[in-house]
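Below is one such protein, fold included:
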Amino acid sequence: MSSAVVSTSAAQGRPFVFIEEGVEVCPETSGAELCAEGRPPQRAFSTSTDARLAGVTPASRLAVRPAAEMVSSGIAAMDALTGGLPRGCLTEVCGPASSGRTTFLLAALAAATRRGECCVLVDASDALDPQSAADAGVELNRLLWVRCGENSPEKSLEQLLCATDLLLESGGFGLIALDLGDLPPQVARRIPLTTWFRFRRAVEHTPTVLLAVERQSIAGSCSSLLIKLGLIKLTSSEDRISEQHLDSQSLPTHAQLLTGLEISAELVRSRLDRKPVRSAEITFASKTAWAG
């Protein structure tokens, strides 16, 4: 006789009998229905006819999922590296100060507003300059600017998280950007991974691009793209004068003005492709609005 183990379902209060040959489900029975061995008669469990298994996806098909729709980041070199920014996913852009984070952020907002989409910038440090955004091509009438202007970084972070939850729940935005670049790294790292996971699940199956700009990567495996920025070279007014081949006596003797940046970008992680991402870098330039 084959051995059997009896357990109780907490959800329905029914005993289940698991035997060596398969699984048999026994409904509640009265004492009169017990068989000679003292246990209820076993009824076969048919997997071919059970409607409850109709919606179960086989394990061999779990990896098959539609590719995310990609939209332009506003920087041609970046689009060539990553294919753009994925909708319904979390993208992280990190780098130290003066590494091009704001340049990337304004370019992404400008590209989204040019597509006619409404965008949100959740500004943890109240650092956005609206005039610079307009000069970068951002259509301000399509931008919702959420300013977290508390004196304490911890309070600003709390405001950012609450605002992001409300925005993701409401929906309807083409791009939601979280600017944590000016928060101290030890404060930004206090965001638990469960929060990033909740953000990622909230944005899934929506046309929204969720973009996080930070000093260091803090979302871990919850981000689909991770891009690291770095400064290569500063361009000053002296460089412009030397490029124009002016006489050395014409060079100014006062301090030089910053006119632009040369930035490197590295694709650190991409979960959009099935193949492991290969380390790749690009460079792009940024210049001040008055540099000409």
Remarks:
- The first helix runs from residue 76 to 82.
- The CA atoms of residues 145 and 275 lie 37 Å apart.
- Confidence is low (pLDDT under 50) at residues 1-13, 16-26, 240-249.
- The longest strand covers residues 258-270.
